[in-house]
Amino acid sequence: MTLIASPSQTSNHKQEKILQGAMQVFFRDGYAGTSMDRVAIEAGVSKQTIYSYFHDKEGLFKALIEQITISRFQTLFDSEELTGDPEGLLRQVAEAYLLKVSDDHQYLSLLRVVIAESSRFPEMAKLYYHTVIQRGRQLLGKYFDDRPELGIQDSEATAQIFFGTLVSFVVSQELMYGKEIMPLSSQKLVDSLVYLILRNKSI
Amino acid sequence: MTLIASPSQTSNHKQEKILQGAMQVFFRDGYAGTSMDRVAIEAGVSKQTIYSYFHDKEGLFKALIEQITISRFQTLFDSEELTGDPEGLLRQVAEAYLLKVSDDHQYLSLLRVVIAESSRFPEMAKLYYHTVIQRGRQLLGKYFDDRPELGIQDSEATAQIFFGTLVSFVVSQELMYGKEIMPLSSQKLVDSLVYLILRNKSI
DNA sequence: GTCTATAATCAGATAGAC
DNA sequence: GTCTATCTGATTATAGAC
User: Which is an annotated GO molecular function term of this record (chains A, B) (predicted)?
Assistant: First the structure.
């Protein structure tokens, strides 16, 4: 039932304009707060054109979120396996995530909207969970499994702690304005996180 | 400008009915998805009565979120100081949080709505951050500071990791239906979390 | 104070011209 | 295919009766 926008096929110009405009409005105003009139204006097309490409508001929203979730994250973790020395790898992943994400309004908005609409659109939250959270956790878990010398008690749980720490930090600092109230150094967070996970071996 | 509902004063019956009804609807449908008609029906009063107590929809919403945030969390951490042996304390806090919260629809909805509306209502997100996140972190940070023998590198960062792990676990398992897709044992999470933080000393 | 009834506006979705 | 114009119902907020 989800009108997914023909993944990596002939890219329709009008359809892309619509999705681009829809993203602006949905990410700013949320699902219920978005009017199709505004999407039409933002996309630079008429409202009827939107309805000819997407069945209704729900269809447009689902197609948008699906497309962004999949296109942004399927390649992020997919085929590549994590390699390298533990300290360097964990630092690099954590720092790259925090650096990229803190100024990435699209990522932050997607995360906010998926959580916001998780009750009305459960499939959307499940897709995000499957595509992003579960995949990241499994990948890092596998890395831990391959290195028993690290003394990791439970690889999946530890991977969940690792990514959960990063995501919750971004949510509290960026989405909830902790940065303005009482900034917490992301460098200190990464230091402590890597320290906790690796202090058996590398320190 | 926030119409806070007279904290611990003469409790107005109609006002409480309105807030109770408003909570049902706002927590289910979000801010924009909520109609004042539905609030009136759910609260069992007329719409005009709502407008006589609260200036408008925004005022009602802000008053509601403020009241719940403050009344639920001000005493949770406030005066009491954390005490006891490290392993027992960390286990107890983590298990109590996960056990209580996983079935606590009011808590889950508040968290979801505060994140969802963080852009439209920044003051609300800041209040939540200040009242819940920052306070919890400081309290646990102080506990760590008082026990240098634990070998904690950075007490505040480690406290952030501790609570961030718990909150992100609940968000991913409950709000994003990870529980249905691939459940992750909360016991294993707590074991690994406590193990990571304390393996210098207690193991 | 509280209700019923209503005003004014805006929403999602469609019809029909070109 | 795409646009303009429009229909129908819902929404916020208010007026006025009791």
Answer: DNA-binding transcription factor activity
Q: What's the whole-number mean pLDDT along residues B67-85? A: 84
Q: Are residues A156 and A175 in the same domain?
A: yes
Task: Report if CB A35 to strand D is under 7 Å.
Answer: no
CATH number for the domain that contains residue B56? 1.10.10.60
Instruction: Indicate whether B120 belongs to any domain.
Output: yes
Domain identity same for A56 and A92: no
- Answer for the pair B129, A184: CB distance below 8 angstroms, yes or no: no
Tell me, yes or no, whether B34 and B111 share the same domain.
no
Cβ contacts of B33 on chain A, cutoff 8 Å: 31-32, 120
B63 shares its domain with B85: no
- In this structure, is residue B115 part of a structural domain? yes
What's the average model confidence in pLDDT over A78-93?
90
Give the distance from residue A18's alpha carbon to the nearest chain B alpha carbon, in angstroms. 22
Instruction: Give A45 or B75, the one with higher predicted confidence.
Output: A45
Put simply, the answer to whether B118 touches A176 (Cβ < 8 Å) is: yes
Show the 3-state SS of B104-137: CHHHHHHHHHHHHCCCCCHHHHHHHHHHHHHHHH
pLDDT tens-digit map of B193-203: 999 999 876 44
Q: What is the pLDDT of residues A107-159, one digit of tens each?
A: 999 999 999 999 999 999 999 999 999 999 999 999 999 999 999 999 999 99
In this structure, the answer to whether residues A103 and A174 fall within a common structural domain is yes
- CA–CA separation, B198 vs A195, rounded Å? 12
Residue B184 located in a structural domain: yes
Distance from CA of B182 to the nearest CA of A (A): 8
CB atoms within 10 A of CB B142: 14
Residue B64 shares a structural domain with residue B88: no
Q: Among positive and negative, which fits the CA dihedral A41, A46, A52, A58?
A: positive
Distances (CA, A) of A155 to A10, A95, A138, B106, B197: 42, 21, 9, 32, 16
Is any atom of strand D within 7 angstroms of residue B62's beta carbon? no
Count up the domains in chain A and report the number: 2
Any chain A CB within 8 A of the CB of B201? no
Tell me, yes or no, whether A184 and A96 share the same domain. Answer: yes
A166-182 burial, b for 16+ CB within 10 Å, e for fewer?
Answer: bbbbbbbbbbbbbeebe
